Task: structure prediction
Amino acid sequence: MNNYILNIETATKNCSVSIAKNGKTIICNQIAEEGYSHAERLHVFIEESIAAVGINFKDLVAVAVSQGPGSYTGLRIGVSAAKGLCYALGIPLIAVDTLQALAAQAKVDDGLIIPMLDARRMEVYSTVFSANLEQKRSILAEVITEESFQELEEKLYFVGDCADKCKEVLTKSNFVFLEDIKYPSANEMSVLSYEKFLKEDFADVAYFEPYYLKDFMITTSKK
Result:
């Protein structure tokens, strides 16, 4: 049976969409831009991906969305699109951990994977995974200092968009920065969402909210 799942990732500067069949990516459209053009790009990517695979929206068995942590605006755009499709098509919603999708890009055989996403200044959203993506620590919004991760003796592979600011303070010999892996992608969501689909691990379409980790703050101009 062909189980087609639409995967949506908008938690960071990278806006990406993939169509997967039975957990394998068939097509992935993505672009990383400073201006967060997700609202304009996302629906175009979805329609282009569906057309390129040669299926219709009614062929989808589920829609998966990156649940966060990440950009407040980006998460809202992705979740709103995913919910709308699930409502319209009458199919389940699958929530995929953003940091797990990021960590999945690191193909390593040993040590631990530390996915980190920028939360401004020296703060990051981070967690710890084993090489086979077993989560070893809860997700935190933490300030990175020279003492961070000092208790871990294994080889640590850091991925995410924080390398430039973190590698100056994280200098232990067992720290390795995989600087080519910056953003989570809908490509890696394919396997993760299919695993949840098989387990019927679905989110509540009506009440699901993104995992912001920190409260969204609105600031006003001092002028």
Observations:
- The beta strands are 4-9, 14-21, 24-32, 60-66, 93-96, 112-118, 123-130, 135-143, 156-160, 175-177.
- The first strand starts at residue 4 and ends at 9.
- The first helix runs from residue 38 to 53.
- The radius of gyration is 18 Å.
